[in-house]
Design goal:
Layout: H1 4-16, E1 35-40, E2 46-48, H2 51-57, E3 63-69, E4 72-77, E5 81-85, E6 91-95, E7 104-110, E8 115-119, E9 126-130, H3 134-137, H4 151-159, H5 165-170, H6 180-190, H7 203-222, E10 259-263, E11 266-270
Helix pairs in contact: 1-7, 4-7, 6-7
């Protein structure tokens, strides 16, 4: 957390600004603003270059565009690019002034009077300043909402490995952007057990999985992500969860009790009837 929909919602807010939002208040788009100063309050938040060079290099550069690749935010600058990965607890706050929050690690000031604060209580998030974003992004797998990501491509990738489907989908080199929440929701919708070996997923079910991945991600973005704790604010997709976090509750389709297991050290929620490990259910 945050996953692709939450990161995309943050991207859109930074790019488009917020008007009349009860949570954030009025604030403009950051596009076109020029950086005037940088404060690094936790040096290890800066991955590349070192913190001193980061602080010295950024001022004078303007923000041209805000993009996203997987779970990475990409700040295209008038020279080079800044990338941020929020990891488990990161968030970005646009502020007008005042004291810094207790968990703010990097604060970027703009000449227009606004500032962008990287808030990260657990200190796992990282920031890069590079000439080319591909220096950081080169190892990522396909973008699941891109037109180039087809059901055929997914089926071919699944047939190339015997890994269990749940950890495979969360591997960012296999597919960029999925995390625990949206993987569980996509597998449920496709009726695939999380422990299923990828090579055993039929072509028809791979197509169902492709559709499910794109559906849950698009719905997550439409609802501004999921807000399940204090880390990410403002989303509503948690109200649509079918299995995630619903251990002990009834499956909305068949009434069977939702179960929780550990897969790759991650809590995994599924319906043992709708997502049978042995039965080859028709799509």
């Amino acid at each position: 957390m945050p996953e692709l929909p939450e990161v995309e919602s943050i991207r859109q807010g930074l790019r488009l600004g917020v008007s009349g939002d009860e949570r954030a208040g009025e604030r403009p788009s950051l596009i076109g603003m020029e950086i005037s100063a940088v404060d690094v309050l936790w040096a290890r938040s800066i991955h590349t270059p070192d913190a001193a060079e980061f602080v010295a290099t950024l001022p004078g550069r303007a923000l041209v565009e805000v993009g996203r690749r997987g779970k990475f935010l990409i700040f295209h600058l008038s020279a080079g690019a800044m990338l941020i990965h929020l990891r488990m607890s990161g968030d970005l706050l646009v502020e007008r002034g005042g004291d810094y929050g207790a968990h703010q690690r990097v604060v970027i000031h703009f000449k227009q009077g606004w500032r962008l604060a990287f808030n990260d209580p657990r200190k796992f998030g990282r920031v890069w300043l590079v000439d080319d974003p591909e220096q950081v992004l080169a190892g990522l797998g396909p973008e699941p909402l891109a037109p180039s990501f087809s059901s055929q491509l997914l089926a071919e990738k699944l047939q190339a490995t015997t890994r269990q489907i749940k950890p495979l989908l969360m591997d960012q080199s296999f597919l960029a952007g999925l995390g625990n929440i949206y993987t569980d929701e996509a597998l449920y919708r496709a009726k695939i057990h999380p422990l299923t070996p990828a090579r055993q997923v039929s072509r028809e079910r791979a197509e169902a999985l492709w559709d499910s991945i794109r559906f849950v991600l698009a719905e997550g973005i439409r609802m501004n992500g999921a807000s399940i704790d204090w880390v990410y604010r403002g989303g509503a997709f948690q109200n649509q969860f079918q299995v995630y976090g619903r251990k002990g509750q009834a499956c909305r389709a068949c009434g069977t009790t939702i179960q929780r297991i550990l897969v790759g050290q991650r809590s995994t929620f599924f319906c043992p009837i709708c997502q049978s490990l042995t039965e080859n259910r028709p799509v």
